[in-house]
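Q: What does the assembled structure look like for these inputs?
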Amino acid sequence: MTQTPDDDFKIDLRSDVTVELVKHSASDADVLFAARVSTVGEQSLDELNKDPERSKGLINFLLRDRHGSPFEHNSMTFFINAPIFVFREFMRHRVGWSYNEESGRYRELQPVFYVPDESRKLVQQGRPGKYVFVEGTPAQHELVGRAMEDSYRQAYQTYRQMLAAGVAREVARSVLPVGLYSSMYATCNARSLMHFLGLRTQHELAKVPSFPQREIEMVGEKMEAEWARLMPLTYAAFNANGRVAP
Amino acid sequence: MTQTPDDDFKIDLRSDVTVELVKHSASDADVLFAARVSTVGEQSLDELNKDPERSKGLINFLLRDRHGSPFEHNSMTFFINAPIFVFREFMRHRVGWSYNEESGRYRELQPVFYVPDESRKLVQQGRPGKYVFVEGTPAQHELVGRAMEDSYRQAYQTYRQMLAAGVAREVARSVLPVGLYSSMYATCNARSLMHFLGLRTQHELAKVPSFPQREIEMVGEKMEAEWARLMPLTYAAFNANGRVAP
Amino acid sequence: MTQTPDDDFKIDLRSDVTVELVKHSASDADVLFAARVSTVGEQSLDELNKDPERSKGLINFLLRDRHGSPFEHNSMTFFINAPIFVFREFMRHRVGWSYNEESGRYRELQPVFYVPDESRKLVQQGRPGKYVFVEGTPAQHELVGRAMEDSYRQAYQTYRQMLAAGVAREVARSVLPVGLYSSMYATCNARSLMHFLGLRTQHELAKVPSFPQREIEMVGEKMEAEWARLMPLTYAAFNANGRVAP
Amino acid sequence: MTQTPDDDFKIDLRSDVTVELVKHSASDADVLFAARVSTVGEQSLDELNKDPERSKGLINFLLRDRHGSPFEHNSMTFFINAPIFVFREFMRHRVGWSYNEESGRYRELQPVFYVPDESRKLVQQGRPGKYVFVEGTPAQHELVGRAMEDSYRQAYQTYRQMLAAGVAREVARSVLPVGLYSSMYATCNARSLMHFLGLRTQHELAKVPSFPQREIEMVGEKMEAEWARLMPLTYAAFNANGRVAP
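A:
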């Protein structure tokens, strides 16, 4: 994060996204409870824990044969910071996701903007559906860093100028770029998260190829890391079955 | 619950439903966190608790003006026992609900059946959309109790007979009545629960009339009692605003 | 369909299900329009029809790489007659499906019941998740036919007896079996229908095995036949890609 | 629309949104068919048309008592042109809506931008939940028009500069503002549209106040006009019942 002074504001340039697991009620046992009601009725946690190999096998079977509903009786809430263009893609996920995002109508938005760092491949090759990304040259990185910063600063200055003149926030924000950071609470369950991860991450174990934009994949990877800790058996089965959501 | 012996099985007759709150991650603070991200960004729990009157006012405002999404970042899982005809209505609720029910394909179903008790009004008057229920006579109650028990026992006997002859459970169950008890896990959030309660309970504070079947209302009342304890401010605001889900 | 006289009613026994395509707004062009807005903006139908091979390729690509949303901008409404136990499974499909079913609260239900015909395999072998169905013996078929009819008639007689005594329909129906026929309007789109078909039909082209109950599969096959006529390119691509919904 | 020449591109400035009804399968009869299956079973169109007053009464009853599902068996597809900040709000509507939007990953985005015209109230007064908008002064309008145009042009120039240097579209677009026009197909049904209109339009008949941003309301008004023509009885009942979606 670098801070650039200006007349009366300074803009922050960031290359990362942040994901915080705010709260959760999610464990592999939730899947087992729900699945076993179909076959043996309600069970105690003791019974569930009696035979770990059997539990592993059941979760694997559910994922393989696409019995999706047992993976819905759990809940994870994330607090996410990322550029608007990431949230635009994120909110295309409608089922099993709940969102509350910072509002440009109710708040003055802060000057925090995205610039790709050196690890971000800048050049797209191939054709739709088969894009490959390759490294940018130092000159390209230099251009992107400088051009973005200038453009962001100018846009934010215009925003501030309109606010100062008494123009409503919801009108003035029109000039703010999709590289501006926003924040939101997003709540999901293991099933809807698996669906997200199947589409928004690339992974060597994936049976079906995905071509996510890198920045939303970064969010996905961080959510995945949290989820893997909460539901290790489910996570292992997801990978073992080609990362296709049931 | 009465048990009636028979050749080789006894049937249970019940008039109640049961609802157990299995797990939850649900509090009024979840609503406040999500709502305030729109206006002031992420906040600590301390800040949230600083001004209880303000919290109450915010939740009330959200409900009144139908800002529904802040009520979705929470989760409640219920284990429910009720007759099949209740579950048939229950599963019409698609959004914000997850279900896993006992399966007549995987399990031999147990002979537990519903009969209305004396408190159940047996007689329907009026026309569609304006039905009123009135007390049944003792003779009607006597008839219903006896006729149902006979019919249930005969149906279950037929079921057992087919199973004994090697017929698949999923075929044999065709004769089992919708008064048979089933069980399921149902997971929801405060918003989807409010929607359910608005339609499936009658209440003097309701702005819009509802005409639920009594048996699903009994399930609704038990879920409502659990939820009211978990999220008292939200519950109060739901009632204060005419029990219309946002 | 056979009709059996009785005191004052006769019951119908059926072994089939019916599916009528009531209305639709669904064609392969709907998929193409929606998909191409991503890449080339709005297009005329003429442009779309110019290059059929390209259209076929695009639909195939969308299905293969799980770009599901272009398959949602279309609509099919079916009128379906089937036993209650089929509708119980059907309504587990929540997303992209709308339902309106005949109500046992508002109508006196008619005595039409399901009995499996000779083509229905009656005997289940193996264990959960790996069930195989094999032919029933003539004796088993004879038993099932006779036992079901007797049980259905007795249940319906009890229903009528309670109605005659002034008991509300919604109470009296408790004794009616899940083999009773009901009817409903069900509206879906190509994406939600593919999801249904992937789970509720068995097919040699399916990449993932499914074990649907035969009776819901019969409904699925009839919907599939209608859909295949409306959207032949999409249908071919669904089969070519292992019958996994995008 | 004014066009401003530049080095090698010219930007379009617009103040309107456009909504085209691309296709539809939607009529009041669809509601009646679906509703009557509950009470009298399948009916012919002739029967439905026999008694127009009764039809009107039934639709009114359904809306008043929140029987929402009969309003889902219909479909409307719109092609919409509007600024990104409108689509950001639009896509918060998850249930009963399908979207396909122009993609900044697959296409070079065109320089068409939003500026408010004289009818747009520029100044926000009051506090969250009770905002009122009042006229801007000529000086404010002049500032907004000029500042936005300058900022948009500079941002688009930066975008073009990065593209010219070989930077991927998905990276370069970070600098583009949310006032940029995008286009999408959006498919809904009468129920999900009513929900949208209840929240995203202000109307003297509304029982519950809404405070939509003017630009999304403009989209809503145009969709409403199309829908009112297709389903006049449903539309009248929506207004008569306070514009609350069932």
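The two ends of chain D are 39 Å apart (CA to CA).
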